[in-house]
Design a protein that fits this description.
This protein has 9 helices and 4 strands. It is mainly α. α1 packs across α9, α4 runs parallel beside α5 and α6 crosses α7. The longest helix is centred in the middle third of the chain and has 15 residues. The protein binds BIS(adenosine)-5'-pentaphosphate and magnesium ion.
């Protein structure tokens, strides 16, 4: 978990190699659906381009299908999911059904100006359609309103690991690995 631009994708990509597990980014999955113009993609596009969250049912269907597949039976790292309380509760149900267990919930933190700076910079290079200043700010707002409550949720479950997301990329990876042991 963490606000847009905090480094979820960057760190997940490094951690998956260290732990030899699958990295599932719901943002990447949805962008893939948009590219192939699937029904899910067409539905998701309008929400994503406005910086809003795609409906919970859509995400829960994707996750149920994805984590039930054989490649996920030895561990996986969810990036950008869950993002709402119903998603967190839905994830519990799904994991129970297939006999999986959540080991940890990592919350990456950084200050807002740094986040906007990173994303506007990336927007210039990558051309991700939701990386313009206006939509970036909306995504930040949505994070604080809808996703930040999950920090308390996972704290109560005893699973929360808070990690400072400011610093160099390898420094942050090291902090996450230390938080996981
Ligand atoms: P998603 O794809 O998850 O995007 P996001 O949360 O907005 O976050 P980003 O991917 O932009 O940032 P990140 O934290 O991964 O940072 P990154 O590593 O890229 O979601 C997009 C949309 O999809 C949502 O708005 C929503 O509509 C929909 N969606 C997805 N999941 C959903 C869900 N569960 N429910 C409902 N809707 C959902 O790094 C950012 C930049 O910073 C990069 O350029 C990177 O190179 C740079 N950087 C990284 N680390 C550092 C560092 N330490 N120092 C300097 N620069 C750094
Ligand atoms: Mg990402």
């Amino acid at each position: 978990m963490g606000p847009p631009g905090v480094g979820k994708g960057t760190q997940a990509d490094r951690i998956k190699k260290k732990l030899n597990i699958i990295h599932l980014s719901t943002g990447n999955i949805l962008r893939g659906e948009i590219e192939t113009e699937s029904d899910v993609g067409l539905k998701a596009k309008t929400f994503m381009n406005k910086g809003k969250l795609v409906p919970d049912e859509v995400l829960l269907d994707i996750i149920r299908y994805r984590i039930s597949r054989p490649d996920c039976q030895y561990g996986y790292l969810l990036d950008g999911f869950p993002r709402t309380l119903p998603q967190a509760e839905g994830l519990n149900v799904i994991m129970n059904d297939i006999d999986h267990e959540l080991d940890a919930a990592i919350s990456l933190t950084a200050d807002e100006n740094e986040l906007v700076r990173r994303l506007v910079l990336r927007g210039k290079e990558s051309g991700r359609s939701d990386d313009n200043p206006e939509v970036v700010r909306k995504r930040q707002q949505v994070y604080w309103q809808q996703t930040a409550p999950l920090i308390d949720y996972y704290k109560k479950e005893g699973l929360l690991k808070e990690v400072n997301g400011l610093g160099t990329i390898p420094e942050i990876t090291k902090r996450i690995m230390e938080a996981l042991v």
